[in-house]
Amino acid sequence: MYRAAVIGLGSIGLLFDIPRKATPQSHSLAYHLNKDIEYVAAAGVRQEQGDSLALIAPEAKFYTDLSAMLKESNLDLISICTPSDVRLELLKTVFEQSAAKLIFLEKPVATSLEEAEGIAVLAEKHNRTVVVNLSRRWSEGAALMRQAVKSGRFGKLKKIHLRYTRGIYNYGSHLFDLVRFVAAKMDTVQVLQRVPTNLDDREDWTYSFTFTAENGSVAGYAEGFDDRDFLMFEMDLYLEKGKIEMLKSGDEIRFYATEQHPLLTNVRQLVLEQTEQGLHGRSSSIVNAADHLVQILRAGVKPVCTLEDGIYPLYVADALNRSYLNNGSVERVSVNQYEG
């Protein structure tokens, strides 16, 4: 068995599973349930977090002293679920005081590109593998969409429409990565409007913007929404011979083919070919991620979401902020040496 610990016992580290949901949502419960992982320790900042941990994973020893946990636990795998603004210094401590080869890092990787790139340099220096939890990559829905696009089932991708809220770092990091994972990498962005949301006080801005992808061959539009009205995380992919819709934050995927229009000559119309519903209830992304981490440790398989993948959304966010500050200029998404 592989020995694991979690650093940071907030929502994604633990509390999403108190009370328990239909499927596991936190790192702690995913490790507790995995037959190949021994969940030995967790670090937090308050004793009440340890009390909550005991409800989900009583086998894990709770620490408020991070150095003591790293020294005593002989770890193979460490989840980092702290706020992103402390990641660089935290990872320095982890790399210096633990021999754990695999780090499972929550998104966003950091609060700035400079810190994210510093983390990449640090991981390479210490020869550690960092997997980033851009959770849609572990989902069945993302796999279905990616396969449909990459196989050419509906022909060449032509347009992308996105609808989102809650910031370019929060929901945006998932959305920008999902576009890249299932469809195409963004080349340029141009901000049209900044949309107010609950995350404005964190300076995690939400923009409506246009973009290009695949060296300009794909056109895109992303519309921002105010989460004080409702949550929104949707994507439409328009292809030569069909359309793919992601609805309800990925819980439902619809695939449309084309057929001859019944009234118009030489004109085709969309027709619903396949619907996948209840995807969130079929499997847990965090459980799928834990299984994948075991395969990395056991068989050396390539990570589904590398550190480079995790940094990519920060380059998109940086380009969007530059566009907004430059009165809606067209800005290139420059990923430098960290392009995955």
Automatic annotation (TrEMBL):
Protein name: Gfo/Idh/MocA-like oxidoreductase N-terminal domain-containing protein
TM annotation in the entry: none
Domain Gfo/Idh/MocA-like oxidoreductase N-terminal: start-end pairs: 3-133
Keyword Oxidoreductase assigned: yes
GO molecular function: nucleotide binding; oxidoreductase activity
Organism: Paenibacillus foliorum
InterPro entries: Gfo/Idh/MocA-like_OxRdtase_N, Gfo/Idh/MocA_oxidrdct_glycsds, NAD(P)-bd_dom_sf
Keywords attached to this entry: Oxidoreductase
